[in-house]
Amino acid sequence: MPGVPSEAAVTTSRRPAPSPEAAARAASLKACRTHLGLTQTKMGAALGYRGTNLRQMMHDLETGRKTITETVMRLAEMYRMHGIPERFS
User: Which residues of the chain have pLDDT under 70?
Assistant: First the structure.
C-alpha cells in the first residue's frame, strides 16, 4: 500500500534498559519513598528538586531514565531511617 511503511521500516524509539546498578538504585529510591508513604511530588520536593513537574522527575529517577546521584541516594536513605524533617516535607 503506498504511503504506509512496511513493518521492517517501522522503528521504535525505546530507550535502552538501565544498567543493573542504575536499576537497583532506582528500585531502592522507590522503596524509600513508599516506606515513607510519600507521593512522587512530595519526595521530589523533599530531595530538593524544584520545578513544575516533580512527579515526572521522580518517575524518571525511579525507572532509571535519569541518573540518581550518590548524594540523592544517601539523602533518601537517611530519610528512610530517620524520617523527613518537617520543613522539608
Answer: 1-13, 89
